Amino acid sequence: MPIRTKQIEQARALAELHVPGEPLVLFNVWDAGSALAMKEAGAEAIATGSWSVAAAHGYEDGEQLPFELVLANLERIVRAIPDLPVTIDIESGYGPSAVEVRKHVRQIVEAGAVGINIEDQQIGGEGLYAVEEQSRRIAAAREAAEDAGVPLFLNARCDVFFHTDSAEHGNTQMDEAIRRAHAYAEAGANGLFVPGLSDLRLIEALCQSSPLPVNIMVGGASSPSQRELAKAGVARVSYGPHPYLQMMTALKEAGRKALQKDH
Q1: Closest to 14 in 3D by CA, of 216, 215, 195
Q2: Which of 53, 113, 192, 198 is deepest in the core (most CB within 10 A)?
Q3: Record's Gene3D superfamilies (predicted)?
Q4: Based on the number of CB atoms within 10 Å of its own CB, is 226 exposed (0-12), middle (13-18) or buried (19 or more)?
């Protein structure tokens, strides 16, 4: 099968896995080795997390990892698991302008990804991009995918809940998230990612009001269960940096035991 035809089929398969009430579960990876482990664990798709990828390369999150390393890492993952859809976290698109986003998304698609996360947080700036500006950036990402001939699954990350305490989450944040969801859908997004939201009542309300399937991040002590999220109507559950943190904790503990001189 031609590479591009296979990529198109994988992009469509990834989209079909987003079913409200029967969420796609993504235990996020950071390199080819962890991607292979998730394949062997039974994953239906592979997703990276930017924090984990950066940490594994010795960098801080926030687009500190050079973009050429992001691409090289993606290419190794795709090469290691050619039979599974791969979606990659590209943070804010590695550039504030729509032109830069379009360029980078085209490179991501050419490297083999069939999905991306792109966030509305201003990397190195203050707060979120205005809805109109982020919509232009999402539209640019969609245009890049269309130019490449791949129906990329564009998961629009909305950070209105992420930088506020969960105790403060309420109608103000919900109204803004719904407003952004409608704008991002019109701009060409396929999904809505709302990290930081853990209140099941608000999650259910967002699922009912969003024109896009909703992605929730779990892993913390206060996270709802997958069963609860499915009942609320969530279509995608991701684990963000938590798999990497669990792996590093286990590695350090094993290392401490091995390095004990009296064992």
Answers
A1: 215
A2: 113
A3: Phosphoenolpyruvate-binding domains
A4: middle
